Amino acid sequence: MRELASKGQLRLAYLRWAIVTVPLILLLGFASGRVAPSGDENAWFMALDKPSIMPPGWAFPVPWSILYILMGLALAIVINARGSRKRVPALIVFGIQLMLNLAWTPVFFGMHRIVPALVIIGSLVVLVAITIALFWQVRRTAGLLLLPYLAWICFAFVLLYQIHVLNPDAQTLVPSRMTDQIEIR
Length: 185
Known about the structure:
The protein is 70% helix and 0% strand. With 185 residues, it is mainly alpha-helical. It has one domain: Up-down Bundle (Ferritin). Helix 1 (7-35) runs antiparallel to helix 3 and helix 5 runs antiparallel to helix 7.
């Protein structure tokens, strides 16, 4: 049997990647959330009418922390799968969906733009599904780790759509932090 690396060496290489990818994705996710106040810290969001299925504000950091950890682990698995031809396309699509994920919070909470945020989440649903399919082809475990992320993004799309329906004038409720708020008299 001719192996380039033992199973132990491969496991160690995966762990080295995970030590980088998990904290990096957590850091990026939380940094995106700090660009504009989110949840209960955001006056505009608090002024919105919310759907009955909306979880309490304190419930969002827990799933997002778990999802970012799962994303980091899945990414480490795919990065470590050097022999797979699907690895590079999977990493590219992952990167694109991650950029959209990180853009959502500033668009929604910072700019108060519900329709563009809906477009972002709709695009995320498609890109995350493609990422899962590509990750699955590289390593099934990596694809499986992203399934909760897809479920959460689908739920977020439904929530955001309902917020849009309940708040047709949402952009005018509270001035955006991203706009000039100087009043000249």
